[in-house]
Amino acid sequence: MNGIPYAREYKVTLCHVCSYVCPEDAHECPRCDSPVHRRKPNSLTRTWAFLIAGLIFYIPANLLPVMYTTMLGSSSENTIMSGVIEFAEGGSWDIAILIFIASVVVPCIKFLVLGLMLVTCQRRSTWAMRERSRLFRFIELIGYWSMLDVLVVALVAALVQFRGLSTIEPRLGILFFGLVVVMTMLAAMTFDPRLIWDAEVEDVR
Amino acid sequence: MSDNTLPPSPPTRPQVKARKVRVSLVWLVPIVAALIGLSMVVHDFLNVGPKVVVSFLTAEGLEAKKTQVKYKNVVIGIVTDIELSDDRTHVLASIDLNQSAVPFTRADTQYWVVRPRIGAHGVTGVDTLLSGAFIGADAGSSEETKKDFTGLETPPAVTFGEKGKRFILHTDDLGSLDIGSPVYFRRIQVGQVVAYELAKDGKGVDVEIFVGAPNDQYVLTDSRFWNASGVDVTLGASGLKVSTQSMASILSGGIAFREPKYSPDAKIADGNAEFKLFEDQATALAPPDGEPKYIRMRFNQSLRGLVVNAPVDFLGVNIGRVVSVDLDYDAATGTFPGIVGAVIYPQRLGAANDKLQQQAGAGDDEEKTSRVLGQFIERGLRAQVRTGNLLTGQLYVAMDFDPKAPKVSYNAKARPLEIPTVPGSFDKLQEQLQAFVDKLGKIPLDDLAKNLNGSLIELQKTMKQVNSDVLPQMRGALQQAQKTLGTANETLSDDSPARQQLGQAMEEVQRTARSVRVLTDFLSRHPESLIRGRSGDAAPGSYKGSSSSREIAPEPAQ
Fold it and tell me: Which residues of chain B lie closer than 8 angstroms to A52, CB-CB?
């Protein structure tokens, strides 16, 4: 299409680990012995699987309480959304927005973007390829921060342990939230962004 | 794009199948996720317990999704919603009970709000100060179940399943009793008041008490219950009497019970047995009084100090009490006699009453009493108002046989029965006092005062004489004495010539004494000198300076 040839035209492929140019039919990199594929194997299917698992875990993560707070004898269990609402009603808009972004907006964006990637790649759409790959890099970037909630709960539960006065304990919801994050990260890892560009040429697989 | 997917040839089919099998391994992840989610849903679904709605007067302290329902401090449910009833008189709290709390849907289950309460019995629910109120529940025993309950406003005093018996007490008014007021047996708390309500006809109060096992066995069929509320201070003809059960009962009231001292065939009372609640211990433990009889007495004297409920004595036995003190007007004499009405209980006479009943013969009860009384009055039975307590002036009515009393005619038909009276002992005392005062009045105080006055004038004259004559002479004598003493003082002073001469004389005597001692000394050593005279070498010791006498050290001669 443009002047630069594709790797497959030369029957070569790139090692993911050491970037060595390997022959196309090699299963292992001659230099570093790591497995060599032209594309990540089964990328779309695996991403779909992880994405769906993440979606399923996202339901209990939101419905189950994530934190159990006892303060001066009054105990309460908070789900993610009830915590956000409590902060918002208490006037702490900044904290409410922070928690809302970290635990609701970010996972939802990840689901949407990954779903969009998968659908467009499966349909071999050539629509907005550059923007889509930029989106994917953005997803990988914010992926680092999606464990924020889990960290906060773990930290607070470990620190606030004043028997009788106030205690904070983690609840099952935070486990599911952690699984959501793990699943979406796995989904993002198994997705091969080069598949976006494969629509340019026909029959890559 | 589509020209790649060329008509599939039959040989490619198995290849597609093989691929599908390989792919499905990754799908285990979402399947496992779905299974976990599903299992939780199923678990939740199985754990959903019954829902009930409890109505309270106020939702104070209750909070939807926060307030818990507890039984023996174990959480058995949570309030999911609080809303007003349709007529806005109640709040309805919807409660989700746990799966295990099914017994709490029984029709006689009780729900109440546990709030901090401060009462005479102590402070309860302190933990709720910090944690907020919670709903207490107590499962019933009924076979039926229901969904709508009416919550209690105060915690039930006795929880379900506690062993013991309930009894009903009838009383005229509630006094200071309340739910939770203690029930004492020999000053040990054995139960409490669990409920009270007005009697059906409104003429009294039914108090329900609960006596816990094993102390319920002490409630016998003839046990007497009395109101032990507060401090019972009685200031009567018999003096000041204070009685109470315990500090708590002073504050909050209480009930005490006990069997009478002599109760030969008492059995353990059954649950829900009914008793009368007496005003105080004395009336409760008194033997049954039987039918009261009304009598009337007419006193020609002041009845100050005679009050309603004052005792009526018969030969020292309290047989009744005064119920009314009124004035009458006697037009013939123009005086105001006092009319005293009293009830007497003949049964209090015990064995005497039985014999009198036999003696009285036939006729109805009133007649018999009247006849017996007539005989007594014939023999001199008279009523008299006496002072029971000199300090307080309380009076009581005493009935005694006075053989010297003037005869009176007794009207056996008169109703109420009238008992003749004689003047009270206090009147006699008053008369004696009057006589004493009269005697005091007869003393010739004026003459006494006159005599005393003359003596005083005489005394005054004497004193004047002493002042004018004796005192100036006394003064001269004193001055003379002073002078004499001054002269003596001068004579004896240190630097007077007499004193100096005396000193010199004393020295002279001293010297003489010394020379005599030296001489005797010399002589004792040289007795021959008396005959031969002093030899040359035998000088007196004092001149040699080594005499055996220590006192005679050589002294400078004056």
Answer: 30, 33
Residues 6 or more apart whose CB falls under 8 angstroms from that of A140 comprise A188
- What local confidence, expressed as pLDDT, does residue B512 receive? 94
- Nearest-CA distance from A202 to chain B in Å? 7
Q: Which of A56, A72, A202 sits opposite B33 (nearest CB)?
A: A56
A68 CA to chain B: closest CA distance, Å? Answer: 12
Q: Is the distance from CB of B194 to CB of B177 less than 8 angstroms?
A: no
The secondary structure of residue A6, as a DSSP letter, is P
* Within this chain, domains A1-38 and A41-198 share the same CATH topology: no
Are A157 and A21 within 8 A, CB to CB?
A: no
Chain A residues touching residue B66 (CB < 8 angstroms): 74, 76
- CATH topology for the A41-198 domain: Butyryl-CoA Dehydrogenase, subunit A; domain 3 (1.20.140)
Locate B320 and state its tokens. Answer: 């009744």
- List of long-range contacts for B69-72, beta carbons under 8 Å, 24+ apart: B69/B95, B69/B97, B69/B101, B69/B104, B69/B111, B69/B134, B69/B135, B69/B136, B69/B137, B70/B114, B70/B134, B70/B135, B70/B136, B70/B137, B71/B101, B71/B104, B71/B136, B71/B137, B71/B138, B71/B139
The answer to whether residue B416 is domain-embedded is: yes
A51 with A114: CB under 8 angstroms? Answer: yes
Q: Output b/e per residue, B269-296; b: 16+ Cβ within 10 A.
A: beeebebebbebbeebeeeeeeeebebb
Give B77-105 pLDDT, tens digit per residue: 888 889 998 898 889 999 988 888 888 88
Q: What is the DSSP letter of B261?
A: S
Residue-level pLDDT at B244: 67
Interface of A with B (CB under 8 A): 42, 45-46, 49-50, 52-54, 56-57, 59-60, 72-76, 124, 179, 183, 202-203
N- to C-terminal Cα separation, chain A: 18
Q: How many CA atoms lie within 13 A of B12 on its CB side?
A: 5
Q: Top-level CATH class of A1-38? A: mainly beta
The answer to whether the CB atoms of A42 and B40 lie below 8 A apart is no
Instruction: Quick: pLDDT tens for B98-128.
Output: 888 888 888 888 888 887 777 656 677 777 7
Closest CA relative to residue B291, chosen from B396, B234, B368: B368
Judging contacts by C-beta atoms under 8 Å, the chain A residues touching residue B63 are none
The rounded distance, in Å, linking the Cα atoms of A60 and A23 is: 47
- Which of B2, B41, B130 is most worth mutating to test chain A (most A CB atoms within 10 A of its CB)? B130
Task: Tell me which of B285, B301, B336 is where a domain ends.
Answer: B285
Distance from the first to the final alpha carbon of chain B: 170
Which ipTM was obtained for this model? Answer: 0.80
In terms of domains, do B395 and B297 share one? yes
Residue B232 lies in a domain: yes
Neighbouring C-beta atoms of residue B390, cutoff 10 Å: 9
Does A49 sit within 8 Å of B30, measured CB to CB?
Answer: yes
Q: What is the pTM of this model?
A: 0.48
Contact B32 A52 (CB under 8 A): no
CA angle B98, B104, B105 (to 5 degrees): 100
Burial of B304 (0-12, 13-18, 19+ CB in 10 A): exposed
